[in-house]
Design goal:
This is AraC-like protein. It comes from Paenibacillus methanolicus. One of its GO terms (molecular function) is DNA-binding transcription factor activity. Pfam families: AraC_binding, HTH_18. This protein is about 40% helix and about 25% strand. Strand 10 and strand 11 form a beta hairpin. The chain is elongated and about 75 Å long. The longest helix is centred in the middle third of the chain and has 19 residues. The chain has a five-stranded antiparallel β-sheet, covered by helices on one side. The chain folds into two domains: about 160 residues, Regulatory protein AraC (Jelly Rolls, Sandwich); about 110 residues, Homeodomain-like (Arc Repressor Mutant, subunit A). Helix 4 packs across helix 6 and helix 4 crosses helix 7. It is of the alpha+beta class.
């Protein structure tokens, strides 16, 4: 079963450096422990024998292997023929985790673990980027062409416009890699979480209960809560609360409604409770939030 690496975005993973290596018969991949960056290997010609901890992979043309920054990597066998492979080093400043083939998450890195998740004006909604650790590329020639263009930009990477091109091109590489699993659409857990999020967004003005959500989705409320925690990093109730506050922020900036009316418009029965929740997440009251963006 294929392992999957999950990246919480934003921020998106970013490119560091890449290249094309040419191994002669008798060469093998270096042994390294905890290099601190992700290492994407894609073979164009020959066969590369690479291991990560207890797992071993024989990479043939069109095969891709994503090595973790915290694991032990090694070549377990010499190349038997001339072997060409691309290597791409990249990193993320966000959270990431490893998921085994059975769908079990194993959290690995969480730079802001324990820190409050403050909502600010126009914050983007987080999502999960999933990349397979091992994959066979269905259109390998397209990936080779993309990687050749990406690596060619290394020489002028000190230019700002080139860095922008590199970042855009690297995201295309990740998109092609992610497309090999289509896990977002096929995972029952992800589908459940997305259905729950859609329902909560459509009914955020209503008094939604966990039991009601379970009845609508035909799943047990505990299962729904676990799915949303894995997919969005929060419970259904917290997701609903965050969404209500986001809608309240829009009304604060776009209308002259009173605080009490805005509270009612976004599903809060009491203005005082709305103000306390808003203040907890934003660090300032709804009135202060509105005043901060008003013209003097």
């Amino acid at each position: 079963m294929t392992n999957v690496l999950n990246f919480r975005a934003p921020p998106l993973p970013f490119y560091i450096l890449g290249g094309l290596s040419d191994f002669a018969p008798g060469d093998r991949h270096l042994s390294r422990q905890g290099i601190g960056v992700f290492d994407l290997l894609i073979v164009r010609k020959g066969c590369l024998f690479v291991g990560e901890d207890e797992r071993r992979f024989a990479l043939t043309p069109g095969s891709a292997l994503l090595l973790r920054p915290d694991a032990y990597h090694y070549g377990y066998e010499d190349c038997r023929e001339r072997t060409e492979h691309y290597w791409i080093h990249f990193q993320t400043s966000g959270e990431w985790s490893a998921e085994d083939g059975a769908g079990t998450d194993a959290p690995v890195a969480s730079p802001e673990e324990g820190a409050p998740r403050m909502l600010h004006a126009f914050d983007p909604m987080p999502y999960r980027l999933q990349l397979p650790q091992f994959a066979t590329l269905p259109q390998a020639s397209h990936m080779y062409e993309l990687l050749d263009r990406l690596i060619a930009l290394n020489e002028t990477s000190y230019l700002g416009i080139t860095r922008w091109q590199i970042d855009a091109m690297f995201q295309q590489v990740l998109q092609q890699l992610a497309a090999t699993i289509r896990k977002q659409a096929s995972s029952p857990r992800a589908a459940c979480a997305q259905q729950a999020a859609m329902y909560l967004r459509r009914h955020y003005k209503e008094d939604v209960k966990a039991e009601q959500l379970g009845e609508q989705l035909r799943f047990h409320p505990i299962y729904i809560a676990r799915c949303m925690q894995a997919e969005f990093g929060c419970s259904p109730i917290e997701y609903l609360l965050r969404y209500r506050i986001e809608q309240a922020k829009l009304l604060l900036l776009r209308t002259d409604f009173t605080i009490a009316r805005i509270a009612e418009e976004v599903g809060f029965h009491q203005a005082a409770y709305f103000t306390s929740r808003f203040t907890k997440y934003e660090g300032l009251s709804p009135r202060q939030y509105r005043q901060r963006f008003l013209k003097e």
